[in-house]
Amino acid sequence: MKRHLSTISLLVVLTGYCLAQRTVQDELGRKVVVANAPHRIVSLAPSLTDTVYAMGAGADIVGVSNYTKYPPEAAKKPKIGEPLNPSIETIVALHPDLVLAIEDMNRLETVEQLEKAGIPVFVIHPHDLAGIYTSITDLGTALNRPREAADLVSRLHSREQAVRERVKGAAAPQVFFVLWPDPIFTAGKHAFITELIEIAGAKSVTDDMSDNWPQISPEALLARKPDSLLLVRGSQLTIEDLKKKPVWSSLEAVRANHVFYTDDRVLHPSPAAFDALEDLANQFHPLGPHR
Question: How far are the Cα atoms of 6, 180, 222, 242, 251 from residue 226, in angstroms, in the given order?
Fold first, then answer.
């Protein structure tokens, strides 16, 4: 009899566990049924991994995409492949109770394949700092960590405001971001890096261009007369390379070695972007002895 009651008790517990689910809405407006407290999470993009770690849930991640760098310990997690083409078989074998995706890097086909396999997928699509704050809040809802998400948003807000206050009233360098030198590609009005440049106390001379990543003519570059360039740190393109190119060598910014640097953190709609923001502000407006 006792054995029979124990079996019934176990079934009740397991049934209660299976029913411990919630329905949440992701940033595509999709209804997603998730575990009450997901503890086996697969992240399909590096920025998602960075955000989950920043909320204190890194231990719950069982798989990450290639190119994961932030935070450094996340790179040691099992890999599930490229963000655009992850291995569905590998993901399924990890037995996740939730997969996190981002619209700009992950395909809808991937989401559909995983859901056909019975795995819930929560999708976000942040495009700017305001979008990062919203996505952190939404991820906090999906992971059932609303307090941790709110705390993280508060800390990031404070960091953004500290940068804004520090550069307030300072003369803004006129910056041209070099995405590619020939043909010339740069950042337009709605590119994430353009927003970071502005908050960090500079002005992108192409912040009036509607395309995210516009191509411009050599004549247009010379006409905008940037006083500084912004290059990608660690890339093969250097200021010395630009000095050897006819159009670029005509720019005073090139001749005078007026150059700032950024890195791939500006491409992460996650807490890593705030590291990039502070780095840019420190370059645009170094703290002097009087500060």
Answer: 76, 16, 8, 14, 8
Q: Select from 273, 262, 226, 278 the least CA-distant residue to 247.
A: 226
Give the model confidence (pLDDT) of 142-187 as tens digits: 999 999 999 999 999 999 999 999 999 999 999 999 999 999 999 9
pTM for the model: 0.88
What 3-state class would DSSP assign to 98? strand
Residues near 207 by beta carbon (within 8 Å), at least 6 away in sequence: 188, 189, 194, 197, 198
Give the bridge partners for 25, in sequence order. Answer: 31
Residue 216, classed as helix, strand or coil, is: strand
Residues 46 and 123 in one domain: yes
For residues 126 and 221, membership in a common domain is answered with: no
Is 2 part of any domain? no
Do residues 42 and 94 lie in contact, with contact meaning Cβ atoms separated by under 8 Å? yes
**Axis-axis angle for helices 129-142, 192-199 (nearest 10):** 110
Exposure of 159 in the CB half-sphere (CA atoms within 13 A): 19
